[in-house]
Each structure stands twice: as structure tokens, then as C-alpha cells.
């Protein structure tokens, strides 16, 4: 039997990549992405309620970010800050100081996750006496490519008013999830702010006994139906919903409707344990 591209890549992954770095919920192999959708190696499209663990908050194809990355990599594949300077790193530092005036009232502000516009980047904003109170270096500090991407991501957030938009979209998302909770006994609680929501799954609403096995089945069934969502929590029973900030209300409706179907199928016992078993999640 001929293996699909996804199956073949998963077999290769199993042979050469350590399991210690994997948190897998379903057999997803990313080929490309656009907006709030990811397309796998076999050409199937998925609506993304994860933002790749909240890393891609401007989506997967922000024009400013793409242009900035292409322009910077055309200049150099690497430029750091330890023994030289680069303009994107200095400009980003200036921008972060402007955006975090609270650093002058608090000790330290730590930034990460989506800071790099989808590329790996983190930052610390604090008083000079704190940051210069010791010695710590990392060879990739201030990588020009990542800093250029984040400057473009901040520009996108500001120019497209994504903070204000995410508040409106988040209110819509919360209303739809609350309505979902009223129809599904598996849902014990919905909580969160804006476009960062958690849906807690329980075996019993009174005892709030965690429904970890059901959470694994819900995210797997949602994947089969075309929606990407992960589960988290101390008891592995909370669906983490963190869509890209650019997601439209129509896409939110689409995703919640798929989640509705997935919950219905799990509650009816229509999801096979054997399908979920290879994916340990947390």
C-alpha cells in the first residue's frame, strides 16, 4: 500500500526525532499556511484555533512580516548583538521600551511567544541597573532576522488595530463558546480573555472530575473535521483556544461549529480509542 505524504513523514519522524520534544495530538504535517489556515502535506486545509501555541498572532501570511524577513535575509543570514550591532535589533529595543512604560514601575517585563512574529525571539525590559547587574550572553542575541520580523509584526498589530479587533472578536468567540457550553454536558467551564479562551471538559459538572480522555478525543475528532485545537491544563482536560488575532467572526463561527460536532461525536461514543492512542499529548 502506498503511504500518503503525511504517513510517510510521520514514519521518518519516528525514526530520527526524539519523543522528548513532542507534544502530539493528531497526525499533522504542515506544508504551508495562509491567514488563519494551515495546509498539510496531502493538501488538506485546517482552520487553526491554536496559532501554533499562540506564536502566530498575526496569522501565517502577514504581508509586512513576510516582506521584512525577505528583505533582511537578502542582506545577511545572520547578524547578532554580542560583538557588533544591527539596525533591526536596536530599533526593536527602542520600540519595546516605548511600548512597556510599566518597566519603569515594575522590576522586569518578560516578553516572548508571539514576539518574533512567528520566529523564535524573546526579550526582557527592565531598568539598566537590573539588566547590567550581572553577565549573561547568548550567541544568537538580537538576531537581525527575528528582530526585523517582530518590528513588522508590531507594525501590523498597530496599523490593523488588532488589539481592538481582538477584543471584539474575543467577545464574539466567548458568546459562541458559552452557547456551546449550554448544549454539552462535557463542558464544565469556559474562561479567558479576548482571543485566549479555555474550555474545561469534565465527567460531571457537580464534581468537576476532569475528562482528560474526552479532551484527547475531542481535539482528534476536531482535527478529522478540519479544525486544529489543543488541550492543556494540570489534568489535560482544558481545550486551549488561541486563534490568530486576524481571524474573522465567520471563521470563529466555522471553528465553533466544528467543535460542536466533535463534542457531539465524543459524547455519543463515536470516536475510537485506538485512533487517539498513538498521540500522547501532554
Task: Describe what you observe in this structure.
- By secondary structure, this protein is an alpha+beta fold.
- The chain has 2 domains: 5-60 and 162-276, Aspartate Aminotransferase, domain 1 (Alpha-Beta Complex), CATH 3.90.1150.10; 63-159, no CATH class.
- The chain contains 10 helices and 11 strands.
- It has helices at residues 5-16, 51-54, 63-75, 87-99, 128-131, 144-159, 162-183, 212-225, 249-267, 273-276, and strands at residues 30-34, 37-40, 45-48, 108-111, 123-126, 187-193, 196-204, 209-210, 227-228, 230-232, 238-241.
- Strands 6, 7, 8, 10 and 11 form a 5-stranded antiparallel beta sheet that branches.
- Strand 1 and strand 2 form a beta hairpin.
- Helix 4 (87-99) packs across helix 6 and helix 8 (212-225) crosses helix 9.
- The relative contact order is 0.14.
What share of residues is helical?
40-55%
Say what the CATH topology of the largest domain is.
Aspartate Aminotransferase, domain 1
List the total number of helices: 10
Mean pLDDT, nearest integer?
Answer: 94
Rg, please? 21 Å
CATH class of the largest domain: Alpha Beta
- The number of distinct β-strands equals 11
Described by strand count, sense and barrel closure, the largest sheet is:
5 strands, antiparallel
Element string (H = helix, E = strand):
HEEEHHHEEHHHEEEHEEEHH
Which second-level CATH architecture of the largest domain applies? Alpha-Beta Complex
Shape: globular
- Fraction in beta strands: 15-25%
Task: List the uncertain runs.
Answer: none
Number of domains: 2
Note the gap between the termini. 32 Å
What is the CATH H-level superfamily of the largest domain?
Aspartate Aminotransferase, domain 1
Amino acid at each position: 500500500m502506498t503511504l500518503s505524504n503525511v504517513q510517510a513523514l510521520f514514519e521518518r519522524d519516528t525514526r530520527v526525532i526524539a519523543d522528548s520534544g513532542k507534544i502530539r495530538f493528531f497526525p499533522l504535517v504542515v506544508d504551508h499556511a495562509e491567514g488563519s489556515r494551515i495546509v498539510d502535506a496531502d493538501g488538506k486545509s485546517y482552520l487553526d484555533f491554536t496559532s501554533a501555541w499562540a506564536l502566530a498572532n498575526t496569522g501565517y501570511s502577514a504581508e509586512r512580516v513576510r516582506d521584512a524577513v525577505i528583505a533582511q535575509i537578502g542582506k545577511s543570514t545572520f547578524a547578532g548583538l554580542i560583538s557588533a550591532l544591527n539596525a533591526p535589533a536596536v530599533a526593536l529595543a527602542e520600540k519595546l521600551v516605548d511600548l512597556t512604560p510599566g518597566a519603569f514601575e515594575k522590576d522586569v517585563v518578560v516578553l516572548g511567544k508571539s514576539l518574533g512574529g512567528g520566529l523564535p525571539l524573546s526579550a526582557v525590559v527592565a531598568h539598566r541597573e537590573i539588566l547590567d547587574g550581572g553577565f549573561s550572553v547568548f550567541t544568537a542575541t538580537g538576531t537581525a532576522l527575528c528582530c526585523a520580523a517582530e518590528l513588522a509584526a508590531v507594525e501590523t498589530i498597530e496599523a490593523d488595530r488588532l488589539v481592538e479587533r481582538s477584543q471584539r472578536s474575543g467577545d464574539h468567540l466567548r458568546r459562541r463558546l458559552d452557547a456551546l457550553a449550554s448544549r454539552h454536558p462535557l463542558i464544565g467551564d469556559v474562561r479567558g480573555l479576548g482571543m485566549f479562551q479555555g474550555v474545561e471538559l469534565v465527567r460531571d459538572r457537580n464534581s468537576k472530575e476532569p475528562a482528560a480522555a474526552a479532551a484527547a478525543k475531542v481535539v482528534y475528532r476536531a482535527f478529522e473535521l478540519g479544525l486544529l485545537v489543543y488541550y492543556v491544563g494540570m489534568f489535560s482536560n482544558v481545550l486551549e483556544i488561541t486563534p490568530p488575532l486576524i481571524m474573522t467572526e465567520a471563521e470563529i463561527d466555522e471553528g465553533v461549529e466544528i467543535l460542536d460536532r466533535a463534542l457531539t461525536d465524543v459524547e455519543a461514543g463515536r470516536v475510537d480509542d485506538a485512533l487517539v492512542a498513538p498521540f500522547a499529548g501532554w
